[in-house]
Specification:
Elements (H helix, E strand, L loop, with lengths): L3 E6 L6 H11 L10 E6 L2 H10 L6 E4 L16 H6 L4 E4 L2 H7 L3 H13 L3 E6 L3 H5 L3 H12 L9 E4 L13 H13 L8 E4 L7 H5 L6 E4 L6 H8 L4
Parallel strand pairs: 1-2, 1-8, 2-3, 3-4, 4-5, 5-6, 6-7, 7-8
Helix pairs in contact: 1-2, 1-10, 5-7
Bound molecules: phosphoenolpyruvate.
């Protein structure tokens, strides 16, 4: 059975004080969480060190939201993979649509980041997905096939998670129909050489739709933005009813 991966993406939210407060509220909800699922928190760089200490010995995994492809160098403002693994980070989100839209990231840079992450022992979460316009033009399938082809060129598929995130569903409350998400995720799987890669759905996942999403056979987890910011709401998501 494929591993289920429930990951929160905090984006640029939460100071260290707010992150500690979140964990105080969140950890008690995990006592009965089934061990068929991995719970990941992808948080701002500044929260990682403190959270790594608080979460030491816990089952929650830490994730970053980006990583540079060089191990060190004159790249002002960037963070390398060894800097992340040194403080206990296990996952890293790569190619999120907000990075593509606002910071000029491409399939090519996603590919470089994935390889650097894997080399250091991090598990990359590669985000792919179409805009509303691309969907309306019937380009969803060709776009995603292209993103996978370029993003995964030469990549080891034994250490990888993919997130299907239709851009029109991110932060809008307009969740993709679960059967349609299942269909696109099936298409993504058909493009992979390893059918065991966990593939998440992301886009307005909430406590009231997670059970239906996770009931879909191709969907192996969720990448959750807004609803991962409140302990009770993210707890309900990670404790989805199978
Ligand atoms: C995301 O940030 O990847 C995301 C899916 O956000 P939201 O859950 O808020 O739509």
């Amino acid at each position: 059975m494929r591993k289920k991966v429930l990951a929160g993406n905090w984006k640029m939210y939460k100071t260290q004080a707010e992150a500690s407060e979140f964990l105080e509220g969140f950890l008690p909800h995990l006592e009965d969480t089934p061990d068929d699922r991995e719970v990941v928190l992808c948080v701002p760089f500044t929260d990682l060190g403190l959270m790594s200490k608080i979460l030491h010995g816990s089952a929650i995994r830490l994730g970053a939201q980006n990583v540079h492809w060089e191990t060190a160098g004159a790249y002002t403002g960037e963070i390398s993979a060894p800097m992340l693994t040194e403080i206990g980070v296990r996952y890293v989100v790569i190619g999120h649509s907000e990075r593509r839209q606002y910071f000029g990231e491409t399939d090519e840079t996603a590919n470089l980041r994935i390889k650097a992450a894997q080399k250091a022992g991090l598990i990359p979460i590669l985000c792919v997905g179409e805009t509303k316009e691309q969907r309306d033009l019937g380009e969803t399938e060709s776009l995603i096939v292209g993103q996978l082809k370029e993003g995964l060129a030469g990549v080891d598929q034994s250490n990888l998670v993919i997130a299907y995130e239709p851009i029109w569903a991110i932060g809008t409350g307009d969740t993709c129909d679960s059967k349609e998400a299942n269909r696109v995720i099936g298409l993504i799987r058909s493009q992979l050489s390893n059918s065991g890669v966990p593939i998440q759905y992301g886009g307005s996942v909430k406590p009231d739709n997670i059970d239906e999403i996770m009931a879909q056979p191709e969907i192996d987890g969720a990448l959750v933005g807004g609803a991962s910011l409140q302990p009770a709401s993210f707890a309900r998501i990670v404790n989805y009813q199978a």
